Amino acid sequence: MNRTKRGWGTDTMPRVRIMPADVELEVNPGESVAEAAWRQGWVWPTQCWGQADCLSCFTRIVDGEQDAVPAEDLELDAIRLKMTGKMRTDGQVRLACQLRCTGTALVLEKRGFRREIPEDNNMLTAEAEPSRA
């Protein structure tokens, strides 16, 4: 994969690309991938908001594993104890709420990742409602 042609930054700010959405996120030092997504207005599925409890944030590493900080015990235990066997045996599965990165080569796959819709951005307002006369 030629990252230069894909618009990947040349600075040292950690970045991660999310597929199939083909979105690049900047990740602050010490910030998880899920936290970076939430901060930048993206929905990353979760129910426990970073507690490594619900496993909804699981993701697969597609490329650049060397830029993923190794999993700590909390994440490893959650995957080992709560994830189904088939998913658990895939060493490329991580929890985005715990996953941190150090470089610009990490590529993840996550279904359900999408742009957040602000609450005040309703398409149908009182003024736009059809007349009931």
UniProtKB/TrEMBL annotation:
Lineage, opening ranks: Bacteria, Bacillati, Actinomycetota, Actinomycetes, Micrococcales
Record domain 2Fe-2S ferredoxin-type: where: 14-114
Name recorded for this polypeptide: 2Fe-2S iron-sulfur cluster binding domain protein
Coiled-coil annotated residue ranges, if any: none
GO molecular function, one term: iron-sulfur cluster binding
Matching InterPro entries: 2Fe-2S_ferredoxin-like_sf, 2Fe-2S_ferredoxin-type, Beta-grasp_dom_sf
Pfam families: Fer2
